[in-house]
Fold this sequence. Notes:
There is one protein chain. Helices cover 28% and strands 0% of the residues. The protein is mainly alpha-helical. Among the domains are: 81-171, no CATH class; 252-354, no CATH class.
Amino acid sequence: MHINARCETPGTELNPRKPIMRAVKKFLLACALLAGVCAGASAQPAPAAAPAAPAAAVVATTAGVVDRTLKGDAVCTRCHDESESAAILSMYKTRHGVKADGRTPGCQSCHGTSDAHLKDKGTPPDVVFGKVKGASAPEVQSKVCLTCHNNGKRAFWAGSQHQGQDMACTNCHTNHRNGGDKVLSKVAQPEVCFNCHKTERAQTHRISTHPIDAGKMACSDCHNPHGSTGPKLLVKNSVNETCYTCHAEKRGPFLWEHAPVVDDCTNCHTPHGSSNTPLLKARAPFLCQQCHSGDHGKNIYSAGNLPSGNITSVNGIQGVANQSPPAQLNGRACMNCHSLVHGSNHPAGAKFQR
């Protein structure tokens, strides 16, 4: 007699799928209970969020500032209207005339309240910009501009070359100009800089130059006129770093490096323009021979220092046609062989050859 934990009806067989079905039912029931718990938790009210600042208050504050600015402008525009020879009212077509912006200054923000000027028109305003008669001192003019524009590229204005030359912001910028400030346009900016830098203007018209006249580059791509931590008001800390912003393929580091290249790009190149391509200070081989005076890079022979003696062409004993020219005269350029003058990563590139 077999004793079983389960009683089975005689003549029937145990179904092998029943245990699996019971397990599936238990799993589905557990999932349903878990879903109910989650739904109850999500139904609870969320904590109240912090009340946001009313937009109406911000709008009211901006409107109040704009209203005060317009009232201040009205004091000036009662006299300085469209009849002025200078474009006074064109200010409202520039960035400084966008009254929808609460940060926009008004006439009195820059020129001062000018109470004495309001009582006596012969008395100039508190601050007079530009180079006109009775203009304020350059430091006074710049101080007004730096009240708002005192960060970013203007951070190093104090002590810069232009500030040291008693220049003011209005020497280059024109705030009232309709159509925008010239120095903010790549096409028109060089015209402003060339008013003082006339040597650089002449250099840009040589056969090899950066595309400044084409409007693809401007002076501010390399120089920061408001001051810099580098030399020559450069936008980077050194000449090479400034050049590498465009000429990244010359940056290196290379396995074989050329000393004058690592030192300063201007050892060989003149950035504003040259009569020798590509912007070289002198054409090869003369440029290379300023340093390489030995081996086959020695100085070019003249008629008085040939290895076989001086040329005596009077009696035809030693004619010029019989002399063998040195190697650098045959090629006319050292770069015909030493093409990788900026540096080489080839294991056999110590001579910067191909």
